Amino acid sequence: MPEVNLDTDAYREEYMTLSAYLTQVRGLIDDQEGLPGWVVCELANVNWNRGHCYLELVETSPDGAVVAKARGTIWSYRAMALSRAFEDSCASPLRKGIKVMLYVQSQLSELYGFSLNVLDLDPSYTLGDLEAKKQATLKRLAEEDLLERNKELEVPTLPFRIAIVSAEGAAGFGDFMKHLSDSGVDFVTELFSALMQGEGAPESIAAAFGQIEERSGEFDAVAFIRGGGSNLDLACFDDYLIARSIAMCSLPVISGIGHERDNHVCDEVASVRVKTPTGAADFIIGKFADAYASLQEVSGRLFAGVEDALASLEDDLERLSSSFSSSLRNYTEVRTEKLSNLHFRLEQAALGNIDERLHYLDKVFTLLRGADPSRILERGYGIVIASGQKVTDISTISDGVRLTIMMKDGKVSLTASDVVIEKKTEQ
After folding, report:
1. Is residue 315 part of a domain?
2. Do residues 251 and 186 lie in contact, with contact meaning Cβ atoms separated by under 8 Å?
3. Torsions phi, psi of 108, nearest 5?
C-alpha cells in the first residue's frame, strides 16, 4: 500500500470529488471488462420489478456469519430465460435462501454504487449443493447410529390413535384425513401443526415431535405428511434436525412426504416410508384390513373344525341310539320269553306272587327305556361335548373352553365362563 502524504497543503491540492473518484474506479473495472467470472453465493433476497430481477447476494461462514455481500441484477432481456431454465431444472423459481452459481460482471455506478450484472447461472450447482447437504446429513446420522433407530419400532397391528405432524389446512393433510374417514374405522387423530417448508420448518417440525414425545402414551404411531412440491420446497426434509427428531421418536413414524419420485432423509430414518399422504392413510387402513383377513381365516378354520366335530358326534350318537334300541329290543324279547315261561311255571305254583313279579319287571322296563339318550333329550336334558368328547365331569371344563350342547331339536356352541366346581360332601 503506497504511503499517504498527509501534508495539509498537498492534500488540498490533490483532492477529487466522490464522483470523480468513483469514475476512476469504474474505469479500472471497465478496463478489465467487468472482471467476469463464476461466483458461488446465497440468495439473501429476490425481487422482481418491471421484468428485472434484483438480487441480494451473501456469503456466510460455517457458523452463519455474513462475510461478504453484494447487489446483483438480472436485466429483463435475459431474466425470464435464466429464471425459466433454473425452474425447469430445480422445479422451483429463484428464491431467498438457496445457494447458486452465477456468472457475473462487476459494474460500478457513481450514483447507485457497486453491483454485479448476472449474465448466466448454473442450476446443476444448486441441485448438487442440495444433494451434498443430504449426503452429509445421512453420514452424520449413520455415525450417530440413528438411521435404524425408529425403523426398529413396528406399527401396532391395530393403530387406532394417530398423532399427525403436518400443516393445518394443507391439501395433503386434507387428503389424509378424508381417506381415514372414508375407511369406516373410528380413528382417534390429533394434529400437531408445523411449518412444512421454508427457513423455520426444521425448528417447527422438531417442536411438534417434542410435543408428541411428551404424550407418547396417548398414541400408537405418528403420521408425518406433506403433499408434493418443488425440490427446493421439499429440501428441508433432508435437514438433520428433522431427521433426528424422527429417529429419536419413541413411536413408529410413518413418513408420507411429497410425490412418487421424491426421496428424503426423513424417509430413510422413519419406521415406515410411503410416497404420499394418501399412501400413509392407505397403509394405516391396510393394517386393519390385514387383521380382519387374518381373523376371517382363523374363524373359517374354527367353524370348519366345529362342524366336522359335530357331524362326527351326530354319527356316533345315531350309532349309539341304534345299537341301544336294538339291544333293548333283543333284551325285551328275551326277558318276555323268560317271563312267559316263568309265568307259566309260577301260575301253577303261586298266582299271588306273579303280580308282585310283574310289577317289578315293569319297573325294570321303565328304567331301561328311560336310559335311552333320545328319551333323555326329550325330557329337556342335553349332552355336553368339549374337544370332541362327551363331558361327564365338570372338572374337565375350564374358562374359555369351546362347548357344544346337543339337544332334542338341535345343537348350540358356546364358550365356558365362570366355571364353579361344587365340592362333594364326604359321607
Report:
1. no
2. no
3. -130, 130
